[in-house]
Structures are given as structure tokens and as C-alpha cells.
Amino acid sequence: MKKRGFTTEKIITAVTWLLILLGWYLITNLKMVSSTLVPSPQKVVTTFLAILQNGYNKISIWSHLWASFERLFLALGLAVATGIPLGLLSGYFSKVKAVIDSIVEFYRPLPPLAYYTLLVLWLGIDNTSKVTLLYLAGFAPIYIACVSAVNNIKQDYILSAKSLGANQKQIFFKIVLPACLPEIFIGLRTAVGISYTTLVAAEMVAATSGIGWMVLDASNFLKSDVIFVGILLMGASGILIDAILRFIEKRVVFWKGFV
Amino acid sequence: MEDVLIDIENLNFEYGTKANKIAALENINIKIEKGEFVCLLGPSGCGKSTLLKIIAGYLQPTTGTCKMKGESIQGPDWNRGVVFQSPTLYPWMNLKDNVEFGPKMRGVSEDEIHEISAHYLEEVKLTGFEDKWIFELSGGMKQRAEIARALANHPEVILMDEPFGALDALTRVDMQGLIREIWQKNDTTIFMITHDIDEALSLGTKVLVMSDRPGKILKEFKVDFTHKIFRDDSRHRKYDQQYFDIKDEIIDLIHSQD
User: pLDDT exceeding 90 applies to what percent of chain B?
Assistant: First the structure.
């Protein structure tokens, strides 16, 4: 079990970050590096406030964030809706697995940007190609987690359910699905992480909005303060999404770790 | 012979590949009659669990037959309740939902389901724990819940695979008393695997002794210590000479094979 409250480790983490901030402050304020390359913390904060107020490139920061998250959530929704059933079916029926598994294993290790160029050619530069790219990135971890979850399921759960009179369909929905939930959540969190990094990369290649695009555009004009704001926003929202998922996970599979 | 519930004839079971076959069970003949408490006793790894799995319907015999009421057992069904060695209660359901799982799956009416679970939870002394999650229960409570879950279906026979093997000695004695009470009260038929001679003798009406692999039935004892020892309803046991004679004979039987 995790310890609650202020542990030594938490204090060490906090001190580490304070030292990083202090170092950043000192290096920039003592003019040890050019402010064009490394903006000072104060500058980043004022830029952040300015962007909050006026947006970037006449588009508000919320629109940029929303553009990114719309793509992300659309793709993840599709990945969940297809990855979970296909993964569970593949775990259940080896013939389904024979069809899907090799395809997933083939494209999974490919760098997403390698086939993104193809997707842009086929589906155009707008959202469809991006959502497809993120969908493919998110599908694999969810699918793989589901296959392994079914394979790892305690056989006695299924046998006992049969001896208690449950039919195939009941076993699937009342036993297999809940028993797989802990691993499904792990797959989901991995999928979110991978999709999110892919999203930013995709927006850097071809987009006119989104938080990744904002960073790329800023770099074209050497606005390092905007790049910093963008990166900090990406990091913070990534942590936030994962925290939300962990919160839901704790609620849904509260029994995990007690089995 | 209409009281025979489970009829096993000339049963053999082999596993492994064609080139490397291992005989697990050899020429098993067992009849379990209605109302009996049959204890199968044998050293570990002798194939006791395999035999239970065949009766449950999880495995099919290589040769020979295993019938229930004259019909060959094709697969698991709710007429044969199973209690596993380590509890297989579903952690995503609370205690009550676990106990009600069988009747719910079979489409029993709501009212009847509540009656059933209340009744059997009381019988295994878990009233008041209905809303507890499985991980909140102790080992003994889990095994009692598992028994209640099997009973809730009113199966014709309950198969138990060393149900008290993982429990501490004190809890085990409690559980033995409980299962004896349940068996007598409900007029159920029980087939139980154990490697504890005292457990077999103090519970069973029939004790089967199985050999090392390949498992054969060495001898069948008809006993009635379950009534004799505990006749006065107390937990105090009154052993007699016959008890120790049979116990010695079983020990000799098991050791004679080394």
C-alpha cells in the first residue's frame, strides 16, 4: 500500500523541482545564456498570462487545447470501443487472434510519423488523418492488454461460474469482463500516453491549430518563451489526464491488489 | 439402486501427449448414493483432484463412464456444486452477490433469491456481512461463503476439493463442525477430497482410500463416526477402539505402497 501524507520521498521530489527552478532562475537572470534561447521564469509566466488573455495567433489558448483534446478523445474513444471487444475476442477465440494479432504486431513498433505521411496523403491534412493516426497508436496497447488479460484470467473463476449454472454469455459479461478490467486500465493508460505524444508530434508535422502546432509555430519565430509555455502545458495536461484515469481506476477496480 | 447419484465405472484417465502418456487414474469404480458423505483420501499428487474434475464435468474420462442419475456427465452444470481448495469468490462482487450468483444466473425470481441468500448466509454464520467485499473477509469466512454459494443452487451433490486445506487448524475444526451440520440439516450429498485421515473419518459415511499415481481405489470403508463421535451435539469427541483400528489400517494402506 502507498503511504499517505508527507513522506521523505515526496519532500525529496519537491526539493528537486525547487532546485531546478532555482537553477533556471539564476542562469537566466544572471544572463549566463541568451534570453532568446532560454527565457527566464518571469518571462514565461508573463507570456503564459498574455497567451491566456489574448490567445496565440489570434486563437485563444482554450481553442488550441480543445483542438488537441478533441482529436485525442475522439481517437481514444474509437480505440476503446474497438480495442476492448477485439482484444477480449482474440483472447477468447484463437482464430480471431490469428487474424488481428500479426497485423497489430507489425504496425505497433513502427514510428507513427512514418506512416502518418501516408495517412495525410490518403485522408488529407485535416482532422481525419490525425484522429486515424492517434487511433492506431492507442489501439495497440488496449488490444494487447485485453488479449493478455483474458489469457491470465484465473481458470477457477470460469469453472466455478459454469458449475453455478452460468452460460457463455453470462460468463463473458459477469466474469471475464470484470476480471480483465485491471489490465484493461493499464492498457488504457498506456494508450493515453502514447496517443498524447503522437498527437503533439502529428500537430508539429501538419496542422493549423492545437498545442503542438503552437510550439512548432513559435519555434519558427524563435519565440522560446511560447515554446516553454507550450511544453509546460503539455506536461501538466498529460499528468492531469493520467491522474483522472487513475482516479477512475481506483473507483472501478477497487478490488485490484486484493485478489 | 435408484438412490445412486453418481456412478463411476471402469474409469481411466490419462494425460500428456501421445508419445508421453501418463496414467492419472486407473480402473476407478465408485458409487455415490443420495445422502452419503463420501471422503476420498490419498497422498498428494495421486489424482484425487482429477477425479473430482471428472465428476464436476471439467474433464472427460479417457475410458470408462462417469454418470449422474444414469446420464453421462458432459460438462459442468449447477446440479453438481463445486467448492474449490482456494476460494474462487468474485472480488468485484460483494458477499451477497457472490452467494446469489448461481440462482441469479439461472433466472430464479428476486424474492426467492433473497430468501435463499439470507438462509444460507445464516447457515454458514455470515449474517451481517452481506455488503462486505471479498477482500474484507478472513480465510475461514471466504471458505464459508464459498460453501454458501454452492449451497444456494440446491445442487444434488456438492464436490469439495480439500476445502479446508488452506485454513489454520482451529478454523478447520470449526469448519468441519459446520459442514457436518449443513450436511445433516439439508440432507445433501457430499463428495470431499482430503489428505487428513481424521477429517475423513470424523465426517464421512464412506471413506475411499486412493493409491499413489496412477490413482486406484485401494479400499472402501463404511463408517459412522460422524454420528457416533458427536452424538451429543457437542464439540467433544468420543473416540472408540474401532476408530483407531481403522485409522491404523488406512495409515498402513497408504504406506504399504512406498
Answer: 44
Q: Which domain holds residue B25?
A: 4-79+157-255
Q: Would an 8 Å CB–CB cutoff place B78 in contact with chain A?
A: yes
Is B53 within a domain?
Answer: yes
CA atoms of A65 and B201, how far apart (whole Å) = 73
Quick one: three-class SS letters along A166-222?
CCHHHHHHHHHHHHHHHHHHHHHHHHHHHHHHHHHHHHHHCCCCCHHHHHHHHHHCC
DSSP, res B69: T
Judge if B190 and B113 occupy the same domain: no
Half-sphere exposure in the Cβ direction for B21 (13 Å, CA): 8
> Are the beta carbons of B105 and A174 separated by less than 8 Å?
yes
Please report residues of B whose CB lies closer than 8 A to that of A175: 90
The whole-number average pLDDT for the span B14-38 is 87
Look up the CATH superfamily of A36-252. Answer: MetI-like (1.10.3720.10)
In angstroms, the Cα distances linking A169 to A87, A96, B77 are 17, 17, 15
Task: Tell me if chain A has a CB within 8 Å of the CB of B73.
Answer: no
Any domain includes B245 = yes
Cβ A255–B76 below 8 Å, yes or no? no
B84 touches chain A (CB under 8 A): yes
| Beta-bridge mates of residue B210 | B217
pLDDT at A1: 46
ipTM comes to 0.88
B121 & B174 share domain: no
Segment A138-159 mean pLDDT: 94
Give, in order, the Cα–Cα distances in Å from B239 to each of A198, B38, B110, B202. 75, 20, 46, 10
Q: What is the C-alpha to C-alpha distance for residues A125 and A249, in angstroms, rounded to an integer?
A: 35
Among the candidates B154, B173, B205, a domain finishes at: B154
What are the cell numbers at B184?
A: 445433516
Q: Are the C-beta atoms of A137 and A112 separated by less than 8 Å?
A: yes
Average pLDDT score over residue span B48-61: 92
Q: In this structure, are residues B175 and B7 in contact, taking their beta carbons and an 8 Å threshold? A: no
Yes or no, beta carbons of B78 and A164 under 8 Å apart: yes
pLDDT of residue A104: 93
Write down the pTM of the prediction: 0.82
Cβ contact, residue pair A162, B75, below 8 Å: yes
Of B117, B139, B154, the last residue of a domain is B154
Amino acid at B113: I
Query: Cell numbers of A136, please?
Result: 492506431
| Segments making up each domain of chain A, as ranges | 1-32, 36-252
